[in-house]
Specification:
Radius of gyration: 26 Å
Number of helices: 18
Shape: globular
Distance between the termini: 22 Å
Largest sheet: 5 strands, antiparallel
Helix content: 40-55%
Oligomer: single chain
């Protein structure tokens, strides 16, 4: 599948990917995994190619910081208050309303000063304003002022279920100012679990073929995304106005291929780290059309999986289950083994159940909340562990792989007229 996320703003957006200190989250990208490599037409035009060596890492750091590979400033910083120094308004409004209801009085009656009543009224209105209610925030000092006036302890209002004092955490960042410019996009392309299991349990030739098929499919998906979202935007966007599309050299991409999930399961996936910079045909640099990336991510996912199936069928002769929402699994790899190697999914689902939440946003929050640091375990050790776990689940790896390869049967291609009739008919395109 293809997932898209904006890279977080900060003083060192590239540090998460490039730092190599012990136990640093960036080891997830560069620790024991293969070195990153440059992809994209924009990278080629900028003279960036091959693996990310020390100079390539420095170039990526500059690009994510809004600078050209040679260090020239392309995009100025946008300095704003650190959002970590803000608190969500809803918990405070709910706590004050509950206290007023218990008395019972109106919430306004809890405040002795007119300015406090006005402040609460404004905060209550923002926290109740449709979809924007989730974004309504309040500064720690204002939150403390209102909570104290209402007879509440602000730390109790903002204490998380695990005991974390979110108020104290916000206070630490209240006076900080950071660069809020979006440094780039992370487009993550993940293989189906059965493909990753075949990669993890197969011999060197099988694993190499799986990786080659995955890389070919990633290349096709990247090419598609570049074709539909490789333009730059100039001018105002919104309020009925549309920004002008500018032709560019294409995306500059640092691709990081990984073999495991954070839980140590086989999980073949690639992070395409795309700096938010495009070199326009007019010589100027501009931002990426991120909305176009989100719009076309699902199509890119269908394309990735279709190419992956074709590649692995050709290279290894595997057969497939019927695709569901564009994704199929390899025939012959049992579901209980897929479940055995889906530790992260179980962790996320457990966290969502405990929090009584559903939906993509909740899944993303649970993913971040349960994410362990990834360790740099050598691949040989990982493969031994995977084989042992497969045996414990009742599946001998070699037997399983041998019974999976070479099982596909070539289907006769339909005649051109038959194919055109289907594609152009009411059931086709």
């Amino acid at each position: 599948m293809v997932s898209v996320s904006m890279l977080g703003a900060g003083s060192d957006p590239a540090g998460y990917y490039l730092a190599r200190e012990a136990n640093c989250p960036a080891e997830y990208y560069l620790g024991a995994e293969p070195a990153g490599r440059w992809l994209g037409a924009g990278a080629e035009a900028a003279g960036l190619s091959g693996s990310l060596d020390a100079s390539g890492a420095a170039a990526l750091r500059r690009l994510l910081a809004g600078r050209a590979p040679d260090g020239a400033v392309l995009v100025p910083e946008v300095i704003r208050a650190d959002r970590r120094g803000r608190l969500p308004a809803r918990p405070l409004v709910d706590a004050i309303t509950a206290r007023a209801t218990a008395q019972p009085v109106t919430p306004a009656a809890l405040f002795g000063q007119p300015q406090e009543r006005a402040l609460f009224t404004a905060l209550e209105a923002r926290a109740a304003r449709g979809r924007g209610a989730r974004q309504a925030t309040v500064s720690p000092d204002r939150a403390e002022q209102l909570a104290t006036a209402a007879g509440l302890d602000v730390s109790d209002v903002y204490r998380a279920q695990d005991g974390t004092d979110r108020y104290a955490a916000a206070v630490r960042f209240a006076d900080r100012r950071v660069d809020v410019r979006r440094p780039g996009v992370d487009v993550t392309i993940s293989a189906p679990k059965s493909v990753s299991v075949l990669f993890g349990l197969g011999n060197n030739d099988t694993s190499s073929a799986v990786r080659a098929g995955h890389q070919a499919a990633v290349s096709e998906a990247l090419g598609y995304l570049e074709s539909v979202a490789g333009h730059g935007l100039r001018g105002h966007q919104g309020d009925g106005q549309r920004a002008q599309h500018i032709a560019t050299d294409g995306w500059i991409v640092a691709a990081f291929e990984h073999r495991t999930s954070r839980a140590g399961d086989p999980q073949l996936h690639t992070h395409l780290v795309v700096p938010n910079l495009l070199h326009g045909a007019d010589g100027k640099w501009t931002a990426i059309d991120t909305k176009a990336i989100y719009r076309h991510a699902l199509t890119a996912s269908y394309l990735y999986h279709a190419v992956l199936r074709a590649e692995l069928t050709r290279r290894l002769g595997v057969a497939w289950t019927a695709p569901v929402k564009g994704i199929a699994e390899i025939n012959g790899i049992p579901q209980d083994l897929l479940d055995t190697f889906s530790t992260r999914r179980k962790q996320i689902e457990t966290a969502m159940t405990a929090a009584a939440t559903t939906g993509p946003d909740a899944a993303q929050a649970a993913c971040l909340a349960t994410r362990p640091a990834k360790t740099g375990i050598p691949e040989n050790t990982l493969r031994e562990q995977w084989a042992t776990r497969s045996e414990a689940a009742g599946h001998r790896p070699r037997h399983l792989v041998d019974n999976t390869l070479g099982t596909s049967r070539a289907l006769p291609l339909p005649a051109i007229r038959q194919l055109a009739h289907y594609l152009l008919g009411p059931s086709g395109l």
